[in-house]
Amino acid sequence: MMDLEFDKNHIWHPYSSLINPPPVYPVERAEGVRIYLEDGRGLIDGMGSWWSTLHGYNVPELNAAMQAQMKKMSHVMFGGLTHEPAIKLCKKLVALTPEPLQKVFLADSGSVSVEVAIKMALQYWHSQGKPKKNKLLALRNGYHGDTFGAMATCDPVNGMHHLFASQLTQHLFAPAPKPKFDEPCTDQDIAELQQLIEQNHPQLAAVILEPIVQGAGGMRFYSPEYLRKVRTLCDEFDLLLIADEIATGFGRSGKMFACEHAGISPDILSLGKALTGGTMTMAATLCTDKVANGICSGEAGVFMHGPTFMGNPMACAVANASIDLLLQRDWKQQVTAIEQQLNDELAPLKKASGVADVRVLGAIGVVEMKQPVDNKTLQASLIDHGVWLRPFGKLAYTMPPYVIDSSDLSILTNAMNKTLGAL
Ligand code: PMP
Contact at 8 Å (CB) between 386 and 41? Predict the structure, then answer.
C-alpha cells in the first residue's frame, strides 16, 4: 500500500493545501483509456491527463520509441550539440503548423513556452529600435500558465493576480470574446479590444490569446470571426499575435490547430501538453522568419533563453512517435465521432435544473453549472461510476483520449448525466 499519510503531510499537489489537503487517489498503473487505482478499480480518464493523453496509456508505439531512444541517450545538452530526434520533430512541427511559422524553440513545459513566446515578442521589438513596445494585450478569462510572465497575462480576476500583484508586469486586458463559436462577430463585439489597440499600440508588443477555446479560465468557445478580426488589427497596428495552443494543439478542437478554424496564422505559437502524447514534459514555441531574423539582428544577436533540458532526446523521440500515430490513426474521424457522441449524450443535461449550459467542440465537452459544485463530493461520486474527472468551480468538463470507444464514452457521459443531473 502507498504511504498516503506521507503524501498528505509532505507532498504538494497542484493547487492544493497541506493543512487541509483534498483526497488524492493512489494510481497503480494506466492502460488504454483507464487509470487503475491501487485497490484495483479502473477509471475511465475523462481528463486526458489535463489535455495531454491522445492515444491512451501504455501505448506500445510510444513505449518502443522511448525504449529505443533510452538505449542511445536519454539526454544530452542542446547548447552546441544537436540530434536526430530533435531535427525530426522540428521538421514535423514546421510542416504541420501554418506555413509562416518556420523556426522552433523546444521548451520544457507549457508555461516555459509562454515565457519564451513573450520574450520573443519583447526581444523582437527591442531589436527593431522600439523597446517601448513592451506590453501585452491579453483577454479576460484567458489562462497561459503559472510562471510569472505567463501569470501576468492570465485573467486578472479569476487568475492569481491579486496575490502577486506587486510583482507582476501590468498588461492590458480586453473583455473575454462574447460571440460564441457558431456566432458572427459584430463590430460591437470587437470594439473594446479595437479601442485598446488604437489607443495603446505604441507600447504594445503583442496580443496573446488562446485561439477559439479559452481553457482553464472558463472553458469558453468563441467565434473564429473574432480571431480573424484580432489578426487584422494586429497587422494594421503593427503588433505580433501570440497564439497559445498548448491545450488546443494536435486536433483537440476538431482542427489540427485551433487557429485553422479562422484560417489565420499567428506570429508566435506555443504548443505543449499533447506534444508528447501525454508521456513526458515538453513544449515548443514556433515563430516566423520575420520574428527570428528581427531578434537575431538586434543588440543581443541571439535569443536569450536556453534551458538545461532543452530538446530532451527522450521527449523528442516520443513526440515524433505520438505525431506519427496521430496522423496514421485518422484523428479527425476520432475527434468528430467524440464530438457527435458528446453532443448527443450530454444533451439531456441541458434540461437539468442545476445546469446553466452544455457545450461541445471537437473532443471537448463542457457542462457549466449554475452554482459552484462541491468538487470533493462530485469527484467521489464520479469515481463510483467508474470515471475520472476533475471539476472546478461551476465547470465539469471532459477531454478524453481520442482512442476512447463509444461504449467507454457512454460510461463517461452517463456518469456526468447521473451526477450533474442530480445537483
Ligand atoms: N497555456 C494553456 C492554454 C494551458 O492550458 C496551460 C496548462 N494548463 C498552460 C499554458 C501551462 O502549461 P503547463 O502546465 O505545461 O506549464
Answer: yes
Q: Does residue 246 have its Cβ closer than 6 Å to ligand 1?
A: yes
What pLDDT, in 10s, does the model give residues 258-291? 999 999 999 999 999 999 999 999 999 999 999 9
CB-ligand 1 contact for 215 (6 Å cutoff): yes
Sign of CA dihedral 44, 49, 52, 53: negative
Q: Is the pLDDT of residue 160 over 80?
A: no
Cβ–ligand 1 contact at 224 (below 6 Å): no
The pTM is what? 0.98
Please tell me the distance between residue 387's alpha carbon and the centre of ligand 1 in angstroms: 23
pLDDT at 252: 98
Per-residue pLDDT at 117 exceeds 90: yes
- Grid cell listed for 82: 544537436
Q: What angle do CA 307, 308, 309 make, to 5 degrees?
A: 95
The C-alpha angle 200, 204, 210, rounded to 5 degrees, equals: 115
**How many residues belong to the chain?**
423
Q: Choose one of 52, 208, 273 to mutate for the ligand 1 pocket test, by most ligand atoms within 8 angstroms of C-beta.
A: 273
Quick one: DSSP state of residue 46? T
The predicted pLDDT at position 314 comes to 98
Q: Is residue 188 pLDDT above 80, yes or no?
A: yes
**pLDDT value for 234:** 98
User: Residue 166: what pLDDT?
Assistant: 87
Taking every pair of Cα atoms in the chain, the longest distance, rounded to a whole number of angstroms, is 62
For 23, the grid coordinates are 483526497
Query: Of 76-85, 153-162, 214-223, which gets the smallest average pLDDT?
Result: 153-162
Distance of alpha carbon 229 from alpha carbon 177, whole angstroms: 11
CA 379, CA 390: separation in Å to the nearest integer?
7
Distance (Å, whole) CA 244 – CA 144: 7
* Residue 110: its H or E element: helix 110-127
- The CB of 361 under 6 Å from ligand 1? The reply is no
Instruction: Give the pLDDT band (50/70/90) at residue 417.
Output: very high
- What is d(CA 327, CA 330) in angstroms, rounded to the nearest whole number? 6
Q: Hey, which residues are catalytic here?
A: 15, 143, 244, 273
Task: Quote the ligand 1 centre to 270 CA distance (angstroms).
Answer: 10
